[in-house]
Amino acid sequence: MNINCDQFSWFDASAEVKELLVLATKTWENPEESLKYMEQALAETKENNHMDVLVAAYRYFYYQNNYALAEKTANTIIARIRKTHQLPDNWEELRSVLLARKDESQIRIFLNAYTALGMISAKLGKLDQAKAIIKEIQNINDKEDFGANILWQILNPSLEEDG
């Protein structure tokens, strides 16, 4: 299959990985075949820090309803950025760092992946974990960049809406 990957010049990955990602989308209707391409793309970038590929992967897994792999991939993104940027484990310390640096691209990827982890946790039935994550994101989400408020409303419907 001849695929023009030049249209993805902004995407931080080799031409081979881009081709695998395109093949994953072109075979979307056949989840087994599509998954094979996505796994190959991830294997090709395993040793590198290709955040674009990891972000594409967790979104792919989420929309394929493969929440376990979406969760694993989002956690991989979070762990890699946490390690690369030496982010603290303690939420209060982390919160202040995230607030100060939230306009940096890697920190925004971290925040998006963490928000996604909240959604994924909800899909997996881990509602307490989902609520905790979304509450944390709300604390640094002053511009509603990460959708935390709407996610919180979904996870905590008011009694008035139920009636």
TrEMBL record:
<dbReference type="InterPro" id="IPR011990">
    <property type="entry name" value="TPR-like_helical_dom_sf"/>
</dbReference>
<protein>
    <recommendedName>
        <fullName>Tetratricopeptide repeat protein</fullName>
    </recommendedName>
</protein>
